[in-house]
Amino acid sequence: MPVPILSKEALIPGRTSRLVLHAPHIAARALPGNFVILRLDERGERIPLTIADTDPEAGTVTIVYLVMGKTTAALEQLSTGGSILDLCGPLGRPTHIVKTGTVVCLGGGTGIAAMHHIAKGHHRAGNHVISVIGARSRDLLLYHSELSAFCPEVAVSTDDGSFGRKGIVTDLLRELLQQRDDVREVIAVGPVPMMEAVVETVRPFGVPTTVSLNSIMVDGIGMCGACRVSVGGTTKFTCVDGPEFDGFQVDFAELRRRLAAFKDMEKLSYDRYCTCLGDTPPKKEKPRSIRVPMPCRPAAERVKDFGEVAQGYSPGLAAQEAGRCLQCKKPACVAGCPVEVPIPQFIKAVADGRPAEAYELIKRANSLPAVCGRVCPQESQCEGRCILNAKGNPIAVGRLERYAADAWLASSACRELLRGGQREFAEDALKVACIGSGPASLTAAGYLAGRGVAVTVFEALHEPGGVLVYGIPEFRLPKKDVVAVELDVLKRAGVRFLTNQVGGRSFTVAGLFEQGFRAVFIGVGAGLPSFLNVPGENLIGVFSANEYLTRANLGRAYAFPNYDTPPFNGRQVTVFGGGNVAMDAARTALRMGAEKVDIVYRRTTAELPARHEEVEHAVEEGVAFTMLSAPLRFLGDAGGRLEAVELQRMQLGDPDASGRRSPVPVAGDIFTLRTDLAIIAVGTGANPVLTESVPGLKLNRRGYIETDANGETSIPDVFAGGDIVSGAATVILAMGAGLSAAKVIAGRLGV
Fold first, then answer.
1. How many Å apart are CA 115 and CA 518, to the nearest integer?
2. Which end of the chain offers a freer environment for a tag, N or C, measured as fewer CB atoms within 10 Å?
């Protein structure tokens, strides 16, 4: 028999509505925690909805739904006076409610409405009910007034801070549990990620926690098993054993997978329904393509030269990729960026065809956008935090950053800027010195120069740029078209570069203060190569990656004899290590004419620390990988030249203190690999040339500079950042350290 709709109210227009249905047979028996199954018409799907309220005397049942599929979209087309074909219930086990004391009822999204019914039940049982509710913003918050009518305490959080506390519900919950010890139970109703987060928040406090699950259902009466979920290692049916379970026992990972089982089919049905209405799906459900690939030169072509591999997005591809961005109100990607680039804003500008505006937005936080767009490990930082990463298709933030920077660098505005003269500062201007010209120093210099500080950068080599020039190959980071232009922008901003200035040799830190510099930033990098410490390491043909890459990059040995620095070309090259530097060395060796290049690594491919993109490019270009192997000794001929390396086969043992499985030797499994050029890329150490010349500068046991949270060293007004503090890390982390220190320096100088 059709069920009449007595009233319909839009709680969030177009997204969430409340229906009051005339169903006296259900209203008479329904208890908090029960749900109903409804079907709209003869062709309709059965869907479960938790009851938000009942009025047994009036014979009404209230349900609240979110428009997210065909059935709920069709519900949205109904109005007061209409009807629903089928309504089955009450179903499921009701909430276990006894008088126990203080109970916390927590809800998110439309789950707040279902939680309202449970909270009311606890209130009627005489419990002290504390409600905790949250939403992205005030206009998306549900049932605040309804809960306030009977709850003595209603705590509210919004992501944007537009109502209640800025933050998320688990923040409020944690503080509440820290402040009081009388909470007897926590009940959570809402999206699966929220409920899982609630469980993990409560776990340290040991308070019993109940979650109400929203599994996929067909019949809702235990016939099909579609709603099964693992609880405490045992399979349960949500419709008959639940929907409420001990949150500490629920296998949330399995639940998430099962909820997604029909996602593609549901989306197809939904999109077709919206098309039939002459409408389009709401923005939240907009079909989104997979991540737009980066155009690259063919491997067979690029391996013959040092031209850039990745070719960058065209305006069309950039707009297509940028259009995938969800424009989150609380963007986790920004929190994942060490220099806090306003990522959603610049991506929106790219999507709208405004690359110059996008560049300006990036430049406010990042002094080297064209560099970062190419070499930063976005997959473990901004892209790693992207909400779309859960599906393996995060927004290509780095590629879009590169596009915006390249578009600006190629524009007439950029050319006009570079034609101008260098900014000049007054004689009495505030002065700051940066030692080293790598990413950390360049970032600090750019930030300070933009605030009217006269910055002088002291570089030990003959070209500024640090690791950007000597460490990263041309095919990944073009020097003339990218690095030199970025440096020119800094020069036009007034940054002065002095090359061939070796800190601790050409000048001292104390001497800089005597020259009138108000602060000094040390960003000299680590720079001291690490070796394997095995016999034969000094044979001719064994190189550190530092030496090999500096010859090729800074010395342009790849263009010998047009450049004078000679290369050491091997036919059978072996690279030891698994990081980005190892990939750079291996791919450089191929371009230098090697017939075969092997990367030897003592763990498996899964543990390679290099960026996935770099490993992928290396494989495409023909680099071979010898995994689970470690060098025992290098073997040479009578003339002291490298001929081979003896390797020990390894296997992964138990995890070490960091959680990584340690490689251990396989007894008796030793083999030899022919090689005439070995490149050791196993990290670097702290170079003491500068640090040993600064009395009172505190170092740690490994020789790196110690700093406080502001980047300040043991010497007042002397700051440090980058690899000389952290050890070998990434370009963007060094930039983040430089930016943090520069902000403190600027504050001290009053600019």
1. 60
2. N
pLDDT at 274: 66
Provide the residue type at 716 as one letter. Answer: P
**Residue 445: both structure tokens together:** 């210099």
Residues 6+ apart with CB under 8 A from 411: 356
508 contacts 697 by C-beta, under 8 angstroms: no
DSSP state of 352: T
DSSP string, 252-307: HHHHHHHHTTTHHHHHHHHHHHHHHTT----GGG---PPPPPPPB--HHHHTTS-S
Distance in angstroms (rounded) separating the CA atoms of residues 721 and 735: 8
Kindly state the greatest CA–CA separation across the chain. Answer: 102
Rounded distance, CA 354 to CA 369, Å? 16
pLDDT tens track for 313-368: 999 899 999 999 999 988 999 999 998 899 999 999 999 999 989 999 998 888 88
Please write down the HEC assignment for all residues of 485-542: HHHHHHHHCCCEEECCCCECCCECHHHHHHCCCCEEEECCCCEEECCCCCCCCCCECE
Quote the pLDDT of residue 563.
85
- pTM surpassing 0.90? no
For tokens 């050029």, the residue is 677
Q: Calculate the average pLDDT of the chain.
A: 89
Residues whose CB falls within 8 Å of the CB of residue 8, separated by 6 or more in sequence, listed in order: 17, 18, 19, 20, 78, 79, 80
pLDDT tens profile 554-568:
989 888 888 888 889
How many C-beta neighbours within 10 Å does residue 22 have?
A: 16
d(CA 511, CA 502): 13
Task: Give pLDDT < 50 ranges for the chain.
Answer: 280-288, 412-413, 416-418
Write out the two tokens for 685.
């150490």
| Distance, CA of 554 to CA of 546 (rounded, Å) | 11
**Residue among 732, 731, 726 at smallest CA distance from 704:** 726
CB 167 within 8 A of CB 157: yes
Q: For 483, which DSSP code?
A: I
What is the rounded CA–CA span in Å between residue 76 and residue 63?
A: 13
8 Å CB contact between 54 and 94: no
Phi-psi region of 601 (alpha: psi -120 to 50; beta: other; left: phi over 0): beta
> What 3-state class would DSSP assign to 460?
coil
The pLDDT of residue 413: 47
In contact, 407 and 319? CB cutoff 8 Å: no
CA dihedral (568, 571, 575, 579) in degrees, to 10, reads: 90
Residues near 234 by beta carbon (within 8 Å), at least 6 away in sequence: none
